[in-house]
């Protein structure tokens, strides 16, 4: 009798899933795919229920799409798997007279969001001579496929082995009051009564920052502008100006037992990385993972390591180029994201993931999904809108989903609202 009941329950569950698939497919075709703003776009959708192993809806989920910031889901997985419980502030080695330090890519060093600065304390408190040890950094200052014209935009700081201040200067302006932090950079200030708004930017090839403003404008303006990180000599100068100490440069790395100085708890970086879609934090996460594993910095090596190991079961091996999703070279399928998100929920506590991922009404989802239980990562580039994550239905079913829209010619907000209507339909109907 028990076996019979199990069989009957399985049959009923199968019929229920079949009905759900049919209903979602009908709604998507009538209300989503063949109407503005989706009708001229390339769309991929995958909705999966881990508890039953059933796909509720699949539409072109085996096609490759530009994922934009959805790539940060993969970077998050890299950090969760490879970084342990704390960020690596630096590698260091001490002898009787000297302290040798090399960068590990930690983006929290002197970042204004973080008061806890163990590396700064180490450098300030030592009475020994400090030597900067150049590490092996295979990364370039920009990721592959990034837009070169965005060099002065706050979402594209340069990447390097020892970030400082988030690799941006912070400029504030109001009337005659102007400031730039860190103060060792100069700010050229020009008045122009023909301007309709304040202009804050940087020269393309030099760390020359400028501010142009209309003296009649009294509104406060703030901007973060990336600086050119330059060579190891430039890094040494920044450290000297910050510490007010002479810093030596170790041409050859001395032999010794280098230790990793622990920094912040990893989630203190992962939460803002996901909530505000911080490109810099995501890129440096891959770099830190490489540094911890091999004492070299190579995002490509981290990516290849994961794709050949933990992620070798992805249904469609992706073209994964960077950590942030700024690259137009990135290519992933919706089913890849659903597979990874399912794996993450198996390997890490659900409560932790819910805290890290933006939720409805919070972070990059603050204006969306306020009545739904959604935990998901957004992604936006010109012509690209993506959303991948977890959805809880009214019947307490947890679904894993990925919706990717490429080459749309409408406003990004209209596409986001269309995706919201789809997930609302799925959540409230089942």
Describe this entry's structure for a reader.
There is one protein chain. The protein has 430 residues and is an alpha+beta fold. It folds into two domains: 2-79 and 274-429, DD-peptidase/beta-lactamase superfamily (Beta-lactamase, 3-Layer(aba) Sandwich); 86-265, no CATH class. It has ten helices and 18 strands. Strands 2-1-18-17-16 form a five-stranded antiparallel sheet, sandwiched between helices. It is globular and about 75 Å long.
What is the CATH architecture annotation of the largest domain?
3-Layer(aba) Sandwich
Class inferred from helices and paired strands: alpha+beta
Approximately how much beta-strand content do the residues carry? 15-25%
Total domains: 2
Name the overall outline.
globular
- Radius of gyration, in Å, reads 24 Å
Portion in helices: 25-40%
User: Can you identify the CATH class of the largest domain?
Assistant: Alpha Beta
Helical run tally: 10
- First-to-last CA distance: 29 Å
The profile of the biggest β sheet is: 5 strands, antiparallel
Q: Tell me the CATH topology of the largest domain.
A: Beta-lactamase
Q: How do the SSEs run, as a string of H and E?
A: HEEHEEHEEEEEEEEHEEHHEHHHEEEH
Uncertain ranges? 6-10
Please state the average pLDDT score: 95
**CATH homologous superfamily assignment of the largest domain:** DD-peptidase/beta-lactamase superfamily
Number of strands: 18
Identify the strand order in the major beta sheet.
Answer: 2-1-18-17-16
């Amino acid at each position: 009798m028990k076996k019979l009941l199990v069989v009957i329950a399985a049959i009923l569950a199968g019929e229920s899933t079949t009905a759900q698939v049919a209903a979602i497919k009908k709604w998507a075709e009538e209300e989503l795919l063949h109407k503005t703003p989706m009708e001229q776009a390339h769309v991929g959708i995958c909705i999966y229920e881990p508890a039953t192993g059933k796909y509720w809806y699949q539409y072109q989920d085996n096609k490759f799409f530009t994922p934009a910031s959805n790539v940060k889901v993969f970077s998050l997985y890299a950090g969760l798997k490879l970084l342990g419980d704390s960020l690596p502030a630096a590698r260091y080695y001490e002898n009787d007279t000297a302290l040798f330090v090399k960068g590990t890519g930690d983006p929290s060093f002197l970042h204004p969001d973080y008061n806890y600065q163990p590396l700064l304390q180490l450098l300030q408190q030592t009475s020994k001579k400090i030597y900067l040890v150049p590490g092996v950094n295979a990364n370039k200052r920009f990721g592959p496929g990034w837009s070169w014209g965005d060099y002065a935009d706050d979402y594209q700081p340069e990447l390097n082995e020892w970030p400082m201040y988030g690799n941006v200067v912070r400029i504030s302006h109001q009337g005659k009051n102007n400031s730039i932090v860190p103060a060792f950079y100069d700010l050229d200030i020009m008045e122009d009564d023909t301007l309709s708004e304040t202009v804050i930017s940087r020269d393309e090839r030099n760390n020359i920052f400028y501010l142009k403003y209309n003296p009649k404008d009294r509104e406060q303006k703030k901007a973060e502008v990336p600086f050119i990180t330059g060579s190891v000599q430039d890094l040494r100068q920044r450290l000297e100006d910050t510490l007010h100490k002479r810093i030596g440069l170790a041409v050859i790395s001395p032999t010794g037992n280098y230790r990793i100085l622990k920094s912040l708890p990893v989630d203190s970086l992962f939460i803002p990385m996901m909530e505000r879609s911080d490109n810099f934090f995501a890129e440096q996460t891959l770099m830190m993972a490489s540094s911890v594993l091999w004492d070299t910095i190579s995002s490509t090596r981290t990516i290849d390591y994961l794709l050949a190991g933990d992620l070798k079961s992805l249904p469609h091996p992706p073209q994964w180029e960077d950590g942030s999703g700024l690259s137009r070279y990135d290519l992933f399928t919706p089913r890849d994201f659903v597979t990874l998100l399912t794996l993450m929920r198996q390997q890490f506590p659900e409560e932790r993931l819910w805290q890290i991922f933006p939720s409805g009404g919070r972070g990059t989802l603050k204006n969306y999904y306020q009545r739904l239980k959604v935990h998901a990562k957004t992604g936006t580039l010109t012509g690209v809108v993506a959303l991948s994550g977890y959805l809880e239905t009214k019947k307490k079913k947890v679904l894993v989903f990925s919706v990717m829209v490429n080459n749309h010619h409408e406003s990004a907000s209209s596409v986001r609202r269309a995706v919201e209507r789809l997930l609302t339909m799925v959540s409230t109907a089942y």
